[in-house]
């Protein structure tokens, strides 16, 4: 039951049915850009990837929401195939937050993997 005041300030009561499901949201769809080519430094993998996760209820998670709702999205990151000049230091990534330390790498491949098995990849070229 819900109690409310109508336009004439009279208290009213309304009843309605609610369906409750005993299941946590999980990533149903994961999308990202295939390539990122720029001179602009980014901090997080989801920024380079233009990452978007959608759960089975249709709720979208983008940018900082992906990390803020990590208990639900459970997206993990890898950084592979870093191209680094001789003597340079390769880029690294925090697999949980997606925070990237670029170091001297000029290109690399980012992967985002959800706990539900969805995987997307973005090839990054950084000049």
From TrEMBL:
It comes from the Bacteria. This is S-layer homology domain-containing protein. It comes from Paenibacillus sedimenti.
